[in-house]
Design a protein that fits this description.
The protein is built from 14 helices and 13 strands. By secondary structure, the protein is an alpha/beta fold. The chain folds into two domains: 3-143, no CATH class; 154-354, Rossmann fold. The strands form three sheets. Strands 9-8-7-10-11-12-13 form a seven-stranded parallel beta sheet, with helices on both faces. Helix 9 links the parallel strand 10 (250-253) and strand 11. It starts with 11 loop residues before the first helix and ends in an 8-residue tail after the last strand.
């Protein structure tokens, strides 16, 4: 059976891998990597064997809930070390849990594929190369759920650790002129996460990933290409992620297309282009990210995951000559709040960050095409005689007396991931220029 070509286009490995990853999280207590391997032809010793035949439909597609039930039952039958009791429990405060590093999926008597498991992308690739299916072992504190054990260990000073060993996706903003995407990826990778970085510009994304991996001395960033306004492209993006790592913990949608034009003069084509990227693109990221997280949730119901949109202050207030951009960003916040109500059932938090203006970014400060130049030429403000004076005028209107920076956004991102109680929120990062009420 060719799983990739089933009649409804369902990518079965992309369904099974997140379910296996959820069980790994639930069993061993950390977000590992699950990699799909169709090439192993013999069952490795110590592998966990699962027959998915009962979960296949007459159309040779897979029923998610049935697969989750089958894999969960196989894990339940696995030989785990037993927690100490009585006097031993007082002496031995932890227990060792064991889990498979290789899950073999069969259909009747035919080996279809293996899913290899380990802590990092590099280590799981090594397991595949060595065909090493030795068991994974982890000390687990008694009677503490996975999320609570992690969250209680964090304080504001340790906030950077909330992403360590997690798998994240950042889409958009990887090119030289869009620093926020690069800043997010560099920060996440530097904090110990594995980051998929997806952008339409393949060459620029690969360049950035190579630089980050060289700096981190590991595979910390994986470049992927995506066109966020194309549903097929977004679907393939999440299928690739599922096949590579089994799933995600953090999905960051950072798409932003800006057209500075009056609503009286803007063409429908330009307006639609902004909506396609900023609004439809976020919807597709939200949809396919949510589907991937839901699959993990079937076998790791206590594990919290995050979908975060990098929105804008223009999602909170309108602005002259930014009608299309503001409209798309307002729409994005509607999706955030609505999806948050729906996806909380799967322990998925959905929030948005609304940065203020990045005055040091080329979008604003470029000496030929920057917004300061454009606004200075098109807007007559009394007493303003240069773009530099216009910038000072804008900064004076902000209570914090400066523009937003990438670091301001990164700090907010880590807060949203760390906290467990807020969802559906749009957090302004505007120096007091825009406030919540």
């Amino acid at each position: 059976m060719e799983w990739d070509k089933s009649p409804d286009k369902m990518d079965i490995p992309a369904v099974i891998a997140p379910i296996i990853r959820g069980l790994c999280i639930n069993t061993l207590g950390y977000p590992g990597v699950v990699m799909y391997d169709p090439d192993t032809k013999e069952i490795p010793p110590e592998a966990l064997i699962v027959d998915i035949e009962p979960a296949l439909t007459e159309m040779d597609t897979v029923h998610e809930e049935s697969v989750a039930k089958i894999v969960r039952e196989a894990y339940t039958a696995w030989e785990f070390d037993i927690a100490p009791t009585g006097v031993d429990a007082a002496i031995q405060s932890t227990r060792i849990k064991k889990g498979p590093s290789c899950v073999v999926v069969k259909r009747k008597d035919t080996l279809e594929a293996c899913y290899w498991i380990d802590r990092s992308l590099d280590s799981v690739k090594q397991r595949i190369a060595d065909k090493n299916a030795s068991l994974l072992k982890e000390k687990v504190p008694p009677d503490i759920s996975v999320n609570s054990a992690l969250s209680r260990a964090f304080s504001a000073a340790q906030r950077v650790d909330v992403v360590r060993n997690k798998v994240a996706l950042v889409s958009g903003g990887m090119t030289r002129n869009k620093g926020i995407g690069e800043a997010l990826v560099r920060s996440l990778a530097g904090s110990g996460a594995l980051v998929f970085m997806a952008d339409f510009d393949r060459a620029e994304t690969e360049r950035l990933a190579e630089a980050i991996n060289e700096q981190e001395k590991r595979t910390a960033a994986v470049p992927l290409q995506v066109h966020v306004a194309d549903e097929g492209s977004v679907q393939r993006l999440f299928q690739t992620i599922a096949r590579t790592t089994g799933g995600l913990d953090i999905c960051i949608s950072n798409e932003d297309l800006l057209r500075v034009e009056s609503v009286l003069e803007q063409s429908l084509e330009d307006f639609q282009a902004v909506m396609d990227v900023n609004y439809t693109g976020f919807f597709l990221m939200l949809k396919y990210g949510g589907l991937l997280f839901r699959r993990q949730h079937r076998t790791a119901p206590q594990w919290k995951t995050d979908i975060i949109q990098i929105n804008s202050k223009w999602g909170l207030v309108g602005s002259q000559r930014h009608g299309a951009n503001a409209g798309s960003k307002f729409g994005g916040l509607g999706l955030v709040s609505s999806a948050a109500l729906e996806l909380v059932a799967y322990n998925i938090k959905v929030n948005a960050i609304c940065p203020g203006s990045f005055f040091d970014h080329p979008l604003w400060s470029d000496l030929e095409q920057g917004l300061f130049i454009q606004y200075f030429k098109s807007t007559q403000i009394s007493g303003i005689k240069s773009p530099a004076e216009l910038r000072a005028h804008y900064e004076a209107a902000i209570p914090m007396k400066r523009g937003c920076t990438e670091d301001d956004v990164v700090r907010t991102l880590y807060y949203l991931i760390e906290q467990e109680y807020e969802t559906g929120q749009a957090i302004p990062v505007t120096g007091g220029e825009v406030m919540l009420h």
